[in-house]
Design a protein that fits this description.
single chain; alpha+beta; OB fold (Dihydrolipoamide Acetyltransferase, E2P); five-stranded mixed β-barrel; 2 helices
């Protein structure tokens, strides 16, 4: 039995870079800074991530430098040669699922942020209206009418 599954939570080190392949597929690359360990033993790992198609669109639209996210995917090894002629192998997470986390402070909001602000405004307006519950009537109305409760 084989298993190739990676789950990381971290923050983007820079804005994601999105491009299209020659066949028209979108790919979005970003680096995630994830902490491991704790206290004096804590170290930060910088992991390259690669998202494709719809996941790439979402990453490009909502993620920015400092954004927190959860990445779920599989590990692949990227092989390349440096300018000095050395062969290198780096792990890359191919993103299958992406969950958005907290946004960096001071980030300019996009379409999603405006939608959330509109919802907040609607909630504020509803709070200002008097609460009305259709299932119950006021007991002891000002007109002096008696209620028709059986007890």
């Amino acid at each position: 039995m084989d298993l190739n599954k990676v789950m990381l939570i971290g923050n983007l080190t820079r804005d994601p870079e999105t491009r299209s392949t020659t066949s028209g597929h979108q790919v979005c690359n970003f680096t995630l800074a994830a902490n491991s360990g704790y206290g004096e033993r804590q170290e930060t790992l910088f992991i390259k991530c690669e998202a494709w198609q719809k996941t790439a669109e979402i990453a490009d639209q909502y993620l920015r430098k400092g954004s927190q996210c959860l990445v779920e995917g599989r590990l692949k090894i990227e092989e390349y040669q440096t300018k000095e002629g050395e062969k290198r192998r780096d792990p890359v997470v191919v993103v299958e699922k992406l969950s958005l986390g907290a946004r960096p402070k001071g980030e300019e909001g996009g379409r999603d942020e405006r939608r959330q602000e509109n919802r907040r405004e609607e909630r504020r307006e509803r709070r200002q209206e008097p609460a009305r519950n259709r299932d119950y009537q006021d007991v002891g109305s000002e007109s002096g009418e008696e209620d028709d409760l059986p007890f």
